[in-house]
Amino acid sequence: MPNVLDDSQYQPPQVFAEGTWLYGAIITAILYGIVVVLYVMCARSLWGRIRVREGSPRRNWFFFIYVNSTFALSTLYVASNSQITQLGFINHRDYPGGPSAYEIDTASPPLNVAFVVLNWCADALMIWRCIVVYKDSKLHLIVTGFGCLMLLASVVTGSLWVVIVSLPAQSATGWMSFSFLFPYISVSLGINVFISILTVLRLLYHRARISKALGPGYGRLYAGFATIIVESAAVFSICSLLYLVPYAVGSPFANASMQALGEAQVVAPLLIIHRVAEGKAWTKNMATSRTLSSSQAMRPLSSQPSNTIGSRPARRVNMQVALEYAQHTDHEGSVQFVDEGKCLAV
To answer: What is the pTM of this model?
Structure first.
């Protein structure tokens, strides 16, 4: 009696490829659940700021519209991906070559447009964050110009890919092929990695300044900023590599990663916006508005007693100075620091 669990000898060669398409749809649905949770958190925080008129109303409304737009596109993407999976595995399961061939040969305009627009939104937000961090730097104009060029490259390559997959008659001729997704994702991955490196370097520079002025303990705040930037970019970067590497070696695993990219690129912007809405992220006024009182060094008290007028010996006074370092959040969501010195005479 044959073992039904070991049916590899009964499987045609394309079954493994068909399984990767199905696994990709499942992973995409899981990532969409994460997007739903992050959307609720962001929308709740932003709407609370809008109701109490906290911070910049224009910025709050922009982020609120951005969050709702990306969530709508994310919903359209997962719905279109689920529909094409149903068509390939149920409605047209007798398609020549099987469901895997149907997935490759069939173009879904809503799916493709949602994927590309979500990628543009994610790249634009990452570039904006980098520009904000370099706002007080001499390199601000260079970073701004370079960021605009990278966003333009993403828009051009994304538009070309949408045109390619929307024209099945030209999909197999020359460079007009479905494989143009590979350079498009490579460009997007390069943008995310490069922008993340620039942002982290700038934040670590501010961390070094604070640590040098106030001590190593006060620079930990910037380690958190660097961590969230790296983690946000890593979500999309890891999924991009999981697609690029299998595709380059011709592995069907690229089918699963390609589907998950659409939802993975929404997670990073929502994480950043949530930190902005909670007042934990970097703002353009953060570096310029901070006053470091530690730059004024205190002169040590002399241990030798001195005489006053009338040859009366002076009373030795021991001073204990306590420095309280408090963290406050202003109306713009930036984190500022206030030093309060208290002197106790004994």
So the answer is: 0.73
